[in-house]
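Example 228, ligand calcium ion.
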Amino acid sequence: MSTQPHVLVVEDEPAIREILAYNLEAEGCRVSTAADGEEALLLVAEDTPDVIVLDWMLPRVTGIEVCRRLKMDTATRSVAIIMLSARTEEIDRVRGLETGADDYVTKPYSMSEMMARVRSQLRRVRPTSVGQVLAYDDILLDAETHRVTRNGASLKLGPTEFRLLSTLMEKPGRVWSRDQLLDRVWGRDIYVDTRTVDVHVGRLRKVLTAGGGGDPVRTVRGAGYALG
Ligand code: CA
């Protein structure tokens, strides 16, 4: 399911990588793994995750460098990065380097602590994936119960329109290209024509405006769609 949060684990020690992946999958995440910084950058370019658990000491390209590059690139800047390091002094150094990491964890850490850190980042970058209620203007969307209301009235949305609306509501104002919406709403393994996005946006608009409210979905010519 594309509503599953996507976490990338970058760690060169196979045992640590596997246990992290195992625990994240148990938390309901879709997990990708990379064994070095170069592989991590390639994976991010191909399939951008929501959160990256990034080890500092990595072969080829270090965690610090990976972090710096991702935070400099507008396409990947919003990905949450949790840096892992062996000692607190290292963490202090990483912080001092202003890599832009969103959180720092010192090894050894407990798995429950790590999962809490990941959840906390997901709440920020991907609120619907952890069951938050989203609000935009007079529209409320409960990701857990799949209930959507506008001005208090319940709206009946199909599953695709629901995912489309939750994606748009996660970041009001952000312009999503049709390809980005396809990845997020339909999933990247499914072949769907980009015009399908227009069809479903049309359906979503119809439901949203049925009660007389204005159309909150904006068409950005040549770019895609945004909320507000
Ligand atoms: Ca390492």
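Summary: The longest strand covers residues 80-85.
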